[in-house]
C-alpha cells in the first residue's frame, strides 16, 4: 500500500533537468486540492454474470469478490428454463439461511420488455430488498425505458418497506440505441414518485455487432466509435459506463488488453462471464502505483507552490523530462487518489 510522502515528493520535484528550457510552467492562481478528495467513491468495476438456472453457480456466486453480481434471467438461460430459473433465483434471494452479499452488489438482468417473461420477472423479483440494481436488456430508446418502468413502479408501489430507489442499468445493443443515446441518458420518468433511477449504461457488443453487421476482431477497433460514445455520454450524465464482455475465456492477455482500453476510454467497469476474469478487471480499473505516485507529487507540489505564493510549477519525471501542470491535471490527480483510496491502495485517514 502506498503512503503519501510530502517531503519525498518535494525532493523529487525540486530536481531540475540539465536543460532548463525543458521545464514548462503554467499559472494556477493558487488552486487548492478539492474537498472531494476525501469522498471515497463506491467502486463498481466488475459485473459478473451468473446463470440463474444453475443452482451450483448461484451458490458459488457467494464466494466471488466481484463488485457487482448480475443474476441473469436472459441470455444465459435457454427459453425452456426461464420459469424455473426465475423460481430458483427468487428462492435463492429470499432464503433466510443464505447469507447474501451486500445489497449494493446484487443486480438482476431481467428479460427484455418485449418478451412474455418480462412481467413475470418483475412480479416475482422486483421489491426484494436484497436487489439494488436491475439490468434492462435491449433498450433501444426512451420508450423502452418508459415501458419497463411502468410495471416496475406499479410493483414497488405495492411493496412495503422497500429500500429504494432501484438502480436501472440500460443495455445498449443496437445502432438505434447508439443513435438515440442522448434520449436514453437524459431519461427521467415523469411519474409521481421516483422509484427507480437510471444509474448506468452497459455495452452489449455481441448484440450490437449482430445488429450492425460488424465483424469482431481481436483488436476491437471496429467498436471504438460505439464504445467511445457510450463512455462519453455516461460520464456526461454521471452514470456508470460498463464495457463489453471479453469472450476470450482462455486468453488472459486479450482480457487485459480490453480492460486497459476500456479504462483509457473512460469506462468505469467491465462485464465478466467467468469468475476467473474478475481479478484482472478489479486490478485494471484502479490507478497503478506509478499513477498514484505521480498524483501525489502533483498535489504535494501544488500545495507547496500555493504556500509560497507561487502560481506556477513544472513536474519533473524520473527520466528528467518535464511537463506542464495545469488545473485540469490537478483535478485528474485528485480523482486518481480518490479511486486509489476506494480501492484500498492508500490509507483513507
Description of the structure:
The chain has 349 residues and is an alpha/beta fold. The chain has 2 domains: 6-39 and 288-342, no CATH class; 46-284, Alpha-Beta Barrel (TIM Barrel). The chain is built from 13 helices and 10 strands. The strands form 2 sheets. It has an 8-stranded parallel barrel with strand order 1-2-3-4-5-6-7-8, surrounded by 4 helices. A two-stranded antiparallel ribbon has the order 9-10. Helix 3 (82-94) packs parallel to helix 4 (117-125) and helix 12 packs across helix 13.
Sum this structure up briefly.
By secondary structure, this protein is an alpha/beta fold. The chain has 13 helices and ten strands. Residues 45-275 form the HpcH/HpaI aldolase/citrate lyase domain.
List the helices and strands and how they pair.
Layout: H1 6-14, E1 46-51, H2 55-60, E2 68-72, H3 82-94, E3 106-109, H4 117-125, E4 133-136, H5 142-157, E5 166-172, H6 175-179, H7 181-185, E6 196-203, H8 205-212, H9 224-236, E7 240-243, H10 252-265, E8 269-272, H11 278-284, H12 289-307, E9 314-316, E10 322-324, H13 327-342
Parallel strand pairs: 1-2, 1-8, 2-3, 3-4, 4-5, 5-6, 6-7, 7-8
Antiparallel strand pairs: 9-10
Any key phrases for this structure?
single chain; 349 residues; alpha/beta; TIM Barrel; 2 domains; 8-stranded parallel β-barrel; two-stranded antiparallel sheet; 13 helices; 10 strands; 40% helix; Pyrv_kinase-like_dom_sf
CATH architecture of the largest domain: Alpha-Beta Barrel
How would a textbook summarize the main sheet?
A: 8 strands, parallel, barrel
Could you tell me the CATH topology label of the largest domain: TIM Barrel
CATH superfamily of the largest domain: Phosphoenolpyruvate-binding domains
Protein name: Citrate lyase beta subunit
Cofactor: Mg(2+)
InterPro entries: Aldolase/citrate-lyase_domain (IPR005000), Citrate_lyase_beta/mcl1/mcl2 (IPR011206), Pyrv/PenolPyrv_kinase-like_dom (IPR015813), Pyrv_kinase-like_dom_sf (IPR040442)
GO molecular function: lyase activity; magnesium ion binding
